[in-house]
Amino acid sequence: MTTAQITNDFKEILTGRRSIKKYDPTVKITRAEMEEILTIATLAPSSVNMQPWRLLVIDSPEGKATLAPLARFNQTQVETSSAVIAVFGDLNNFENAEEIYSKAVEMGHMPMEVKENILASFAGYYERTTTEEMKDVVLIDGGLVSMQLMLAARAFGYDTNPIGGYEKDKIAEAFGMDKDRYVPVMLISIGKAADGGHASVRLPIDKVAQWK
């Protein structure tokens, strides 16, 4: 494959994405393929590499039945999609710091002394950070992984739609998660589109960007 082909394929992934409201209910994404999509999505950047995203894949009839009343304005997406992925941000994400940075040392990405210095400095930062400040961090990181997930899904030939209208205050507990720890970011429906969706208009660059 030439560089031009790669560039064109990537451009199509970006420009061809549509927000889909109805999917082909006969199309199911296998566990193995979903894991590939999620693995690519989690290559997204995050604050000090804490990877605070937690991804709940809701694809069983029971899971969708639990989700349905919490996303009552998006019933068609819940019912027809192959899955709905609930993206959460873990406020206690620093608990994984040792695992993440030890693996970095093991893989030769950094020497042990660098790891120890980084963790020592991060520990103080996390101790001083308020819940509201950490919520801002995990929402930003959750947005990054969500966008990468949607692009990864399209690269695999699937369609998606981000959903913000659902019962955010109830969804964690509904699925047995600690609502004080896991902050809902968004839902993402995924599957094979049953129609072409609708193109959308974007503001011109000279309206949204400026140079100084």
Summarize the structure in short.
With 212 residues, the chain is an alpha+beta fold. The protein contains nine helices and four strands.
List keywords for this structure.
212 residues, alpha+beta, 4-stranded antiparallel β-sheet, 9 helices, 4 strands
Q: Name the helicity range.
A: 40-55%
Shape: globular
Average per-residue pLDDT, rounded, comes to: 93
Q: How would a crystallographer describe the biggest sheet?
A: 4 strands, antiparallel
| Total beta strands | 4
Question: Strand-and-helix sequence, N→C?
Answer: HHEHHEHHHEHEH
Number of helices: 9
Strand order in the sheet with the most strands: 1-2-4-3
Rounded Rg: 19 Å
Terminal CA distance: 39 Å
* Poorly predicted ranges: none
The secondary-structure class comes to alpha+beta
Hey, roughly how much beta strand do the residues contain?
5-15%
